[in-house]
Design brief:
The complex is a heterodimer of chains A (382) and B (534). By secondary structure, chain A is an alpha+beta fold. Chain A is 45% helix and 15% strand. The longest helix of chain B has 36 residues. The chains are: A alpha+beta (382), B mainly alpha (534). Chain B: One of its GO terms (biological process) is electron transport coupled proton transport.
């Protein structure tokens, strides 16, 4: 009954404010979402909104009544009153009571949202410019999730797909009907992990860990994005969560553990293998475009004063600078936006991207870096 | 009353001696000249910040990056915010205070006229420094006007140093302006002008000035900490050195929340002058208006963390700040009810100042409602950092503060210039503005609820239709302001109908006792106030 009333009133308001044609094709309200909490948030939102609308209608009705009736052109004579203690007390006390009626449900919902105890699964979420890392506490699974939308769709007006800017290469996967605890932090600046359909928005603060939780009702794909300005590519830091039935999730997690373990073994094996220059350059280019181009730009020119150029200057063209180059990519540069990639990329990928940077854009140092070189450097470094 | 004025000495000759040309403006200590300088500077900044808003809206007209680079886009959002807050709205109010407060309380000038000169003249330099930082390699500040660390420290470009310096100068200017207002009001009221007889514009500015003195030093502190974190190896906001990035936000918003009231309390005063004038009926609930203003100012120090509900505060802190924030609705409601009651059974006419004041009441109230929604912590998690917030604060700042400034300009332009603002143009300006401002900001509520974050240069496809509408509204609103420029220029050029001393039938107050335009020196002899002017 209550829900229906909300619906009717909202629809009426929407139709009043926007042409009907728009209202049908557009999402113009909060989503109800996929969890009990998000549904409660939605109901609270509609409740507070309706209270505001009702008060607004009363106040504006009185005002427009005056504007229409009490105008000089209709011969209105001004009254002289300028105080009325009883009325003034009433309109101080009544709003106060209305506020209590709003604060009450808000308080209980907030306490519920804050309770992260008794979770079934924990995922550590780490934001960094401009991607998310997910690490499962209960499984040996850890990976990085970056935007999958092609840069040419953004910058070159290539046709945009349905989920433009809201698609990632590797979504977060969680089980339905389980309390999933999310630990949220950051490697660099402040980000904010937001999935509207879970009604979770929590800042990722560097050096501190925030907690949130969700229990998703229905399997599905849920999309969100970073909500705190985090630099140049803030708009390009989406979040995709796939909720699977618990059994399917279990299967996915086990497969993923195996796959990641195999990947690591494969990497060990490949350390002794030489890649050709062509292979290095091809792999390097794809890694570069996915990981480096956002700052250093696809043409290696960087952004003057913000992100250094790699083409024709700096460590990438210094023939004695190979070790410095590896160090920069593997360990990052303290106090700058340049982060450490040694745990984010495989040895092969590191080798390839460094080779690429040393030979692309007429840098042409001719240096070929192999996975083993990276391995040796990092071993020596430790 | 021991004022500097010799009450026994009658002069009829006002000695309008003043230097001419650039010297008059550079060396002036006259409150009217300084008021004009502030207002013109603010007008210039309004157009500068507005142009940046149009760059933002042009880029957001459709999905994809077409016009600017994301880094430049971030500079535009940052500069737009800084210029509108510190360059447009605040100097406009200081200009109004300079012009009107001495005339409203029957004082010959501001109490500290030389400091007054200085507090204006350092402002243009602050903005030249800040704007010129955009020419540096890597561009100007790109971390949002809220300059959250560590984006503004470790991860910012070297323009940050100029930004910090510019903010310091703006802060000094504001503090000096506030001291001047307080000293003037406390010491230079004409005999009989008791506190509870002061016009509400004077009262609201009096309270605003205390807010400024309280929080501008906090802003100065926090920008200095940003500077030392970036250049002198301190770690106030860096966890690696024992600091906390959230500390920045606590400090910033301890300044920032009172700051938003600094930008709205004088509006309340303006509207409280205009509505009674055009309703031809005394303001309803004068005393409760004063108390409500003081209550809002007091509460403004206890609500700062409602900007930070998603930072992971302890839940009981969140609850405290939610309750305190909701409480602000009570005194704000009192004000709105008082304005509506002032109109009730009045005899209203709808000249341009009244039109803007009425639009203020309605649109500011809408902004107040979205403010209540934002105060509700669990729901704020959904609204926070989306276009819903952008819609909210533009309703209170553009159709709130800026509309009240325009209302004030139309109301007092006859007194300033001696000429009536062109009524046809002014009404055209009003209708163009009030329609386009709603095309511009109302749909932002929807796109925010639908999930579009703020401060993004590109967005997902489901937001495209509404963004196109918003951008159209933005250009309509922006170009409508050229009509305002035309009205002001026409008055300054002394064209149109000459104004009498009291051009508005129902207007009350000492400023209407002096001729239009107001002579260079007013109230050399203080007037005597026998009864409340209301």
């Amino acid at each position: 009954m209550k829900a229906r009333l909300y619906r009717v009133l909202t629809a009426a308001l929407v139709l009043f404010v926007m042409p009907a044609a728009f209202a049908e094709s557009l999402q113009i309200n909060l989503p109800r979402g996929a969890t009990e909490v998000s549904n409660s948030v939605y109901s609270l939102h509609m409740y507070v909104f309706l209270v505001c609308v009702i008060i607004g209608v009363i106040v504006f009705a009185a005002m427009f009544w005056s504007i229409i009736r009490h105008r000089k052109s209709r011969g209105a004579e001004p009254a002289k009153f300028h105080d009325n203690v009883r009325v003034e007390i009433a309109w101080t006390v009544i709003p106060f009571l209305i506020l209590i009626a709003m604060a009450w449900p808000a308080t209980s919902l907030l306490l519920d949202m804050d309770d992260t105890d008794d979770s079934d699964l924990t995922v550590l979420i780490t934001g960094s410019q401009w991607r998310w890392d997910y690490e499962y506490f209960d499984y040996d699974v850890q990976y990085r999730s970056s935007m999958a939308t092609m840069r040419d769709q953004v910058y070159a007006n290539l046709p945009k797909g349905e989920n433009y800017l809201l698609e990632v290469d590797r979504p977060l996967v969680i089980p339905t009907n389980r309390k999933v605890r999310l630990l949220i932090t950051s490697d660099d600046v402040i980000h904010s992990w937001w999935v509207p359909e879970f009604a979770i928005k929590k800042d990722a603060n560097p050096g501190y860990i925030n907690e949130a939780w969700t229990r998703v009702d229905e399997p599905g794909i849920y999309r969100g994005q970073c909500a705190e300005l985090c630099g140049r590519d803030h708009a390009f830091m989406p979040i995709v969560v796939i909720a699977l039935e618990p059994d399917d999730f279990e299967e996915w997690a086990t497969n993923e553990e195996t796959r990641l373990a195999e990947e690591r073994e494969e990497e060990e094996r490949l350390l002794s293998m030489q890649m050709t220059m062509d292979e290095l350059m091809t792999l390097g280019e794809s890694v570069y475009n996915a990981q480096c181009a956002a700052c250093h730009q696809p043409n290696g020119q960087g952004v003057p004063g913000v992100f250094p150029a790699l083409a024709g200057e700096g460590v990438s063209v210094d023939s004695d600078g190979l070790n410095d180059h590896i160090d920069t990519v593997a360990n990052g540069v303290q106090g700058t936006a340049m982060q450490a990639y040694r745990d984010q990329l495989s040895m092969r990928e590191l080798a390839a991207v460094i080779t690429y940077e040393r030979n692309a854009w007429q840098n042409d140092t001719g240096d070929e870096v192999q996975a083993a070189d990276i391995h040796n450097y990092i071993q020596g470094d430790n | 009353m021991s004022t500097v004025v010799d009450t026994h000495h009658e002069h009829d000759d006002h000695h309008d001696h003043k230097p001419t040309g650039i010297k008059r403006w550079l060396f002036t200590t006259n409150h009217k000249d300084i008021g004009s300088l502030y207002l013109l500077f603010s007008f210039l900044m309004f157009f500068a910040g507005g142009t940046m808003a149009l760059v933002i809206r042009a880029e957001l007209f459709q999905p994809g990056m077409q016009i600017v680079d994301p880094h430049f886009f971030n500079q535009m959002t940052t500069m737009h915010g800084l210029i509108m807050v510190f360059g447009a709205v605040m100097p406009a109010f200081t200009g109004l205070a300079n012009w009107m407060i001495p005339m409203m309380i029957g004082a010959p000038d501001m109490a500290l006229p030389r400091m007054n000169n200085w507090s204006f003249w350092i402002l243009p330099f602050a903005f030249i420094i800040m704007l010129s930082s955009m020419l540096m390699p890597g561009g100007g500040p790109a971390f949002g006007w809220t300059f959250y660390a560590p984006l503004s420290t470790t991860y910012s470009t070297d323009s940050t140093a100029l930004f910090v310096f510019a903010i310091h100068i703006m802060g000094i200017s504001s503090i000096m302006g506030a001291i001047n207002v307080i000293v003037t009001i406390m010491n230079m009221r004409a005999p009989g002008m008791t506190y509870m007889r002061m016009p509400l514009f004077v009262w609201t500015w009096f309270i605003t000035a205390f807010l400024l003195i309280a929080v501008m030093p906090v802003l100065a502190g926090v920008v200095t900490m940003v500077l030392t974190d970036k250049y002198f190896a301190t770690s106030f906001f860096d966890a690696a050195g024992g600091g906390d990035p959230v500390l920045f936000q606590h400090l910033f918003w301890f300044f920032g929340h009172p700051e938003v009231y600094i930008m709205i309390l004088p509006s309340f005063g303006i509207v409280s002058a205009i509505i009674p004038a055009f309703a031809r009926k005394p303001l309803f609930g004068y005393a409760s208006m004063v108390y409500a203003t003081a209550a809002i100012a007091g509460l403004s120090f206890l609500v700062w963390a409602h900007h930070m509900f998603t930072t992971g505060m302890p839940v009981f802190a969140s609850l405290f700040f939610m309750y305190m924030t909701m409480l602000i609705a009570v005194p704000t409601g009192v004000k709105i009810f008082n304005w509506v009651s002032t109109m009730w059974r009045g005899s209203m006419t709808f000249e341009p100042p009244m039109l803007f004041a009425l639009a203020f009441v309605i649109l500011f109230t809408i902004g107040g409602f979205s403010g209540i929604m934002l105060a509700i912590t669990p729901v704020d998690f959904q609204y926070h950092d989306t276009y819903f917030v952008v819609a909210h604060f533009h309703y209170v700042l553009v159709s709130g503060a800026v509309f009240s400034i325009m209302a004030a300009a139309y109301y007092w332009l006859p007194k300033w210039s001696g000429f009536m603002p062109d009524e046809g143009l002014a009404k055209l300006h009003f209708w163009c503005s009030v329609i386009s401002v709603n095309i511009l900001f109302f749909p932002m509520h929807f796109v925010g609820l639908a999930g579009m974050p703020r401060r993004i240069p590109d967005y997902a496809l489901q937001f495209a239709d509404i963004n196109a509408i918003v951008s159209v509204g933005a250009f309509l609103f922006g170009f409508s302001q050229l009509i305002f420029l035309a009205v002001v220029v026409k008055c300054m050029a002394k064209k149109g109908q000459a104004a009498v001393a009291k051009p508005w039938e129902g207007a009350e107050g000492l400023e209407w006792d002096v001729p239009s335009p107001a002579p260079y020196h007013t109230f050399d002899t203080p007037p005597k106030i026998e009864a409340p002017i209301r």
